[in-house]
Give the backbone structure.
Amino acid sequence: MSILTAFERQALKLRLQGHSAYAIARQFSKEPRTAYRSIDNAHKKLMEAKKDLEWAKQLGYPEKLETKPKKEQPSLRPAF
């Protein structure tokens, strides 16, 4: 599962290679505004994902999931 659409990935890749939003739009037969918006959306999604990843790391992810949970000790009290 990806947080970016296929077009957002392609547009961002080309933008990072130095292509303008106008050139990207022409390559995919889209409006320049569409390419610009896709690049902007990709950036926002990646920044949000980065925040979520930092939060998860503060909780101990993935290390805590990789270790087996400890079995609870049975209670010595009789159940009534």
